[in-house]
Each structure stands twice: as C-alpha cells, then as structure tokens.
Amino acid sequence: DAGVIQSPRHEVTEMGQEVTLRCKPISGHNSLFWYRQTMMRGLELLIYFNNNVPIDDSGMPEDRFSAKMPNASFSTLKIQPSEPRDSAVYFCASSPSTYSNQPQHFGDGTRLSIL
Amino acid sequence: GENVEQHPSTLSVQEGDSAVIKCTYSDSASNYFPWYKQELGKGPQLIIDIRSNVGEKKDQRIAVTLNKTAKHFSLHITETQPEDSAVYFCAASRSNTGKLIFGQGTTLQVKP
Q1: Greatest Cα pair distance in chain B
Q2: Residues of A in contact with B31 (CB under 8 A)
Q3: Nearest CA distance, B101 vs chain A (angstrom)
C-alpha cells in the first residue's frame, strides 16, 4: 500500500517567496493533518481536515499560512510570504477518521529552508 | 492547555538491555495513547498504541502500560537491538477531537 506522499522532500527558497507544500493521503482515509517539527517546539499540529473540511486551524501560526483540501486525495499548505523562522520539517499525516482515535500515518516530510 | 511531558530526553543502553520511556498527560479526558518511532530523515511511524480501557498492551519486544489515575503511560522495549536506535514520541488525544498532543521526544541509542 502506498503511504502518505509529500512533495517536495526538500525546499530551499529566499525570504518573501511563496512556498507550497503538497500532500497525498492514504486512499480511503477521511482525515488529514499538517504538522511542523522544529528542535525548539517539537511536533506541532497546524491544522486538520475531516472529509475535506477544515476542523481546527488553531495551530496555524499566522495569516501567512493557509491550507486547502480541494478533494479527498490532495492537500496543500502554503506560506506567503515566507520568513526564515518558517524553516522546519513539515509533515502531513492521514487517518481513517478524526474521531474514534484511529492511528495517524505520517509522510516523510518536507524539509523547508528559508534563506 | 493540554500538555504531554516525556522523560528522559536521551537514553543510552547496551544491546540486549531494556529501555523504558515515560510520559504524563494533563487532559484527564484523553483516551488514546500512541507511540511513534522516528528515524533520521523519516516521518514518525506508529509502533504501538493503547486505549484507556486497557492497562497494558504487548507486541513482541514492545509493551505499553497505562495508569489512568496517575495520568501516566510508559513504553518498554526489551532485548534492545541497534536498529531500535531512533527518536521515540509519545502522544495523547481524546476521541471527540482526534488531536494528538506529542511529548518532546526521547533519543534512544542502543550500543552494540
């Protein structure tokens, strides 16, 4: 079975540029999560969707961050404009369901560096 | 707010010894406790989970125990092997939100 697929695996860009991270969840999973991992703050939940609808975006740090899920097989996390402090590893995870405590399966992440 | 504390932050053991990682959680409504293993350059991978209606769960060399009264849960790895070396994360969530709150992680090194 294909797992969660994220692209790109690495992104290096200059401050001020728009960055778009992509995620394809596991087929049949109804829930999708975006996380950010840094040494200082660990793993933080940014936003999650259930059946393509955003449920909780309280972890999104600023208005510069936005996420969409236009269909069940694709999601994007966009940063515009990007800043050096956005440098981190961004993970996408999917789960059969948000509720009833189903396991979350993670992709291998996008390592983002903002110069 | 919800919080999960994980200890120790680093753990070094000899191959064949046991390793124990401990977590405490603050939200008494939490009822799901997964453990993840993260290798370098990879995403976290679920290794075992436990729900609040169970006190202990085993899967080969890995076991997890849960004490709901103390709001405490632990990961036990027996007969450690060098390939167990990784960062381990505990997490907690409640079923009406599905939000995982992660601990800070434990870097486990198993020396051959």
Answers
A1: 44
A2: 101
A3: 8
Contact B102 A95 (CB under 8 A): no
CA distance B109 to B14: 8
Rg (CA), chain B: 13
Closest chain A C-alpha to B17 CA, distance in angstroms: 28
Q: Per-residue pLDDT tens, chain B, 112 aa: give them.
A: 689 999 999 999 999 999 999 999 999 999 999 999 999 999 999 999 998 887 899 999 999 999 999 999 999 999 999 999 999 999 999 877 778 899 999 999 999 9
- Rg, Å, chain A Cα set: 13
- Residues near B4 by Cβ (< 8 Å), separated by ≥ 6? B23, B24, B25, B26, B90, B91, B92, B101, B102, B103
- Residue length of chain A: 115
Phi, psi torsion values for B82, nearest 5 degrees: -55, -35
Contact status of A91 with chain B (Cβ, < 8 Å): yes
